[in-house]
From TrEMBL:
Keywords: Membrane, Transmembrane, Transmembrane helix. InterPro entries: MFS, MFS_trans_sf. Pfam families: MFS_1 (PF07690). The keyword Transmembrane helix applies. One of its GO terms (molecular function) is transmembrane transporter activity. This is Putative MFS family arabinose efflux permease.
Length: 409
């Protein structure tokens, strides 16, 4: 099992950009929970916490779509290095305003700027993998490794954010993302040998197709839509877990509970990536979504931190394999010259979905307590499954064509 991962990490430069990419996106794993903990503690409102988190996530999602297009046109370092610096500065301003207990409305502008300029380091790392190898089996392993590392980040991030926010200061959980963002950006974007070169786009008449939104590529919109709804599940879980743990007088445990979700996902992703699967990719994608729906339904039974963590294992097991399959579908459907944009739309979907999920969950929790938050997770899980299965035929046809000329955009 380990041999497959060792093989791809022996590709020249792969280990360095993989490690740097992990650092660069680790801060993002702390952002959502860090904002919820800071705002709910200082301002005393989960609704406001959800709204601030949603504003950050929406702007991150929309900004990532724009930045990824610019990256494909001008290169990773030229676009994303200055953007990462601006994002860190804007987040620092948000923290200062919160600590000063400035009016709540003042938090929105800097947190939105921070989100809009944050970018999607995970998509950039995956684009580098596609550049350093064109072997489908190696790409499957590489994408699986990245999904596993995503979960490692989301396993450690919430624990660190919770420890800092509850043990040091409510705003301390957002200091680490600032530092990690700056360090990761310097390390990752300084590696020029593995940065994908900018590819020339075809001249007219084909050139008009390249101005077409990548979401209009057959099958891509369906996958991104499902990813958006998966994001609503993530956003609702973040806020609901904090609210539930607080109601059970165990607020510091919220980070550990979320870490259990991510640990289970990381282990599932590691195992999934090491295997070679014979079944069709769209079918595996649908199976993963169905399993996630069933697991979210089980969360409604939680009435203690231990049971919530145990049920979180079931949710976590379904996450990484489903995200791996989604990214693999995008890699199949999108032309290489627009791969960063295509992969970034996956992150954009997650971000928009997380903002919706956290916002909705925050408001229903203010109205009826944490239990309504957990029910909202199940509702979002059901919507995810409905959209996925409704799109199955379209997605199957798009993957069956598998013709780069036809799906170039």
């Amino acid at each position: 099992m380990v041999r497959a991962y060792r093989e791809i990490l022996n590709i020249p430069g792969a280990l360095r950009f993989c490690a740097a990419g992990l650092v660069a996106r680790s801060g993002g794993a702390m952002m959502g929970l860090g904002l919820v903990l800071m705002v709910s503690a200082i301002y005393g409102s989960y609704g406001l916490a959800g709204a601030v988190t949603a504003a950050n996530a929406v702007c991150w999602a929309l900004g990532t779509a724009v930045l990824s297009n610019l990256v494909d046109r001008f290169g990773q370092r030229r676009v994303m290095y200055p953007a990462a610096i601006l994002s860190a500065i804007a987040l620092a301003v948000t923290v200062v305003l919160a600590v000063m207990q400035a009016p709540a409305w003042t938090l929105f502008a800097p947190v939105m700027i921070s989100g809009a300029t944050g970018g999607a380091p995970g998509a950039l790392v995956r684009a580098r993998w596609s550049y350093v190898t064109d072997n489908p089996d190696q790409l499957h392993v590489a994408f699986s490794l990245e999904s596993t590392l995503d979960e490692v980040a989301y396993m450690v991030g919430p624990v660190v954010a919770t420890a800092l926010s509850t043990g040091v200061h409510p705003a301390a959980g957002l200091i680490a993302p600032i530092i990690l963002g700056l360090v990761g950006a310097q390390w990752f974007y300084s590696q020029r040998s593995t940065e994908p070169p900018v590819q020339d786009r075809p001249a007219a008449p084909e050139g008009a197709a390249w101005r077409q939104l990548v979401l209009l590529v057959p099958g891509v919109g369906a996958v991104v839509a499902v990813n958006l709804l998966i994001g609503t599940v993530f956003g609702a879980i973040d806020v609901s877990v904090v609210a539930a743990a607080t109601d059970w007088n165990a607020r510091p445990a919220s980070g550990l509970i979320l870490a259990v979700f991510s640990l289970a996902s990381a282990m599932a992703g590691f195992y999934y990536g090491a295997r070679r699967w014979a079944s069709p990719l769209p079918r595996r994608f649908l199976i993963g979504v169905a399993a996630m729906f069933a697991a979210t339904m089980a969360l409604c039974l939680a009435n203690s931190t231990w049971l919530l963590a145990a049920l979180g294992l079931l949710v976590g097991i379904t996450v990484a394999p489903t995200l791996i399959n989604g990214n693999s579908l995008i890699e199949r459907l999108v032309h290489p010259a627009r791969l960063t944009e295509g992969l970034a739309w996956m992150g954009t979907g997650i971000g928009i979905g997380a903002s919706i999920g956290s916002g909705v969950a925050g408001h229903v929790i203010d109205l009826g307590g944490y239990s309504l938050g957990l029910y909202s997770v199940a509702v979002f899980g059901a919507l995810t499954a409905i959209i996925a299965f409704a799109s199955a035929r379209v997605l199957g046809r798009a993957v069956a064509s598998d013709d780069p000329a036809a799906v170039a955009g």
